[in-house]
Amino acid sequence: MYGGDEVSAIVIDLGSHTCKAGYAGEDAPKAVFPSVVGSIDQMDADGDNENNDSKTSNNNVDSNKPKGKRRLYVGSQSLGFRRDHMELTAACLVQVLSPLKDGVVVDWEIVDSIWDHAFKECLLVDPTEHPMLLAEPSSNTQQQRERTAELMFEKYKVPALFLAKNAVLTSFASGRATSVVVDSGGGSTTVAPVHDGYVLQKAVSTSPVGGEFLTDCLMKSLESKGIVIKPRYSFKRKEIQPGVFQTVDIDFPNTTESYKLYSKRVIASDIKECVCRAPDTPYDESAYSNIPMTPYELPDGQTIEIGADRFKIPDVLFNPSLALTIPGMDSFAEISPSVRGLPQMVIDSINRCDVDIRKELFGSILLAGGTASMQQLKERLEKDLLEESPQAARVKVLASGNATERRFRGQYIGISWFIPANVVFQVRFVHLTGMKSMELLTYKENALKMRPMGCISCHCMRSVSAP
Description:
Belongs to the actin family. The protein is an alpha+beta fold and 467 residues long. It contains 13 helices and 21 strands. Strands 10, 11, 12, 13, 18 and 19 form a six-stranded mixed beta sheet that branches.
């Protein structure tokens, strides 16, 4: 059993953009790194080594590895180093090497490598000695939970495991058991009502418009204006005289297009975070045509001026059809009619809840996620909701005053509240028909008996008494 201050539980929040890992009860994660993984096909790597020098010791080592397998690279440092033939793509491209798509895991081998990196390289811990708490999206399926438990118990041999909804953790972080959590992350935006610590699944709303989508919109808009973003690996700067630098382009023919796109996205994402802010009113081309320009210096020394795009890109969250006016975003036209803006998602989600709790939900709307840390987003959302919500509703949008806290601390503060309230983890291994199945039981300190929970292997409901 693990309870109270004796718990040194490890917390992992695997998102579509970044993975956060740390210890329960702390205000911020110990490690934050991209949840996208680089991949090199061993056949390509071995072929290049043989062409360069077939007698080197490196080739002798690589020749022992099976052909056709891929070598994975995880973490900011590994992804920042350019390698020949390394594929690294986001979920919206053809080859999916981000482990998540719309919050659902699509590649468990990559997820496994991310967990390995978190345990061995970031936290430097032995997972067999720590109970595990994993944050999961509100739309996570039963099959995903089963696979997660299987890996954690069978491979990592964790002594205890608990899966908690992101929305519940964010709600607990604000000291509320009932709220509407607006989680705008890298891959998508999710609106999830929470009542008495439980997510109301029937009222959860999702949208593909997230941080990565806004970054793509900004990249396409800059490209249409003739602004070229050079990846950091594609040039070097030499100081020809004091204070004067010359940029020399470097050509790497074996660099994949996916890695080039990822490197450009990193720069475009920094531009978005530095200069963009949500407009006070819906974006209008004529009203923002003469807006003052804001300078931004690119890594190659080029200084660009950004004007109306500072407000147009964030307004896509409130008016998704605005993305169709950006050159190069034609692919969004197929799903654009079904995508709703942020205020409409919140109101529709609340309207699908019971009438008795709608007033409380309108007064407790919480912002979470990296995209939600954008300047003036809280004020704009509250303003739009006041205009569109029923007159009797008292709308209140809550968010941390610090952007860093809003981006990372929601789940971790929530877990520090969550662990004392659900202190006991107990894991039992049950042998059924010769196959080991896992049964995860959890109960509160003040419970008289253990709450029955279905066996995750056979979906049966079994009443289990406390030992």
